[in-house]
Write a structure and sequence with these properties.
heterodimer; A: about 110 residues; mainly beta; 13-stranded parallel beta sheet; about 0% helix; globular; B: about 170 residues; 2 domains; 11 strands; about 15% helix
Chain lengths: ~110, ~170
Amino acid sequence: MAITHIGSTLVIEGEISGSDAVVVQGRVKGSIETSQGVVIENSAHVEANLTLDTLEVAGDVKGNVTAASRVEIKPEGKMVGDIKAPRILIADGAHFKGNIDMDVGR
Amino acid sequence: MAATTVIAAGSVVRGHLTGQEDLLLQGRVEGSVALQGNLDIEADARADATIEAVTVRIQGTVVGRVVAREGIELSASARVRADLVAPRLVIAEGALFAGAIDMSGAPVARPVFTAPAPAAPAQPVATASPVGQPSLAPVGQPSLALGDDDDDPELPGGVDAKNIAFKKKK
C-alpha cells in the first residue's frame, strides 16, 4: 500500500486527494480527502477539512473531520473542529474543542 | 538530514507546495512546486505545474514550467511540454519534449566564446606558429582579433573570412 508522506519542511496550500494513506509531518492548509487512513504527526500543523477512513492526530489540527471508521486523538494531539465518525478515541492529555457526531451511517 | 516527501501513485495534490526537502512524485501535482531540494518525477507520475527545485529528474509527464538551480534530466520515458530553465540539461533518447530551453542563467557566468575557442587550434596552419595556441587563454576575447594578430602574415584572407562566418553563426 502506497503512502503519501508530507515531510516536516513541506507546506501545501491546496488539496490532497486520492486513494493512498497520508502521513503529514509538515503543514497542510486546505483539504485532505482519501479513502485510506491519515496520520497527523507530532510536528504537523494541519488547517484543513478532512475526509478519510481513519484519522490519528498527534499534531495540531484545525478543521472538520469526516471519518468512515475511526478518529483517534493521541495524548500529544490538539484538535479544534467537528468530528463525524462511528468510533472516536480521545486520549488522556489530548486537547479537543468542537462537536462530535457518532451517528454516521446509522 | 532533510526528509523526503512522497506523493504516492494514488494521490493528487492541487495547490501550492513548498519545502526544503526532496520530493518523490509518483502521483499527480497540479499547481506549483517550490523546493530547496530535488524533485523526482517517476514514470507514471504527472505534474501540471510551475516547478522550482535544485535538480529535477523527469521520467513521467510534465506540463508547465521547470526551473532548476542545478540541472534537469529528461529520461527516456519522459513526456514534457514545458519551458525548461537550468544550467545543465540532459534529454535522453526516447524522451518527448516540446517547449523552450534556457541554459543561459547559469549561476557561474560562463564565457560565451568557449565554443569557438577550440576551433582556432583546429586550423591546419596552427602547426606553423604554435604561438597561435594562446588564443585559448583570453577566453572572452573575440577570436577574430586573435586570428589577425598571430596568423595574418601567413594566412590567406580566405581563412579570416571563414573565421568571421563561423563567429556569426554562433
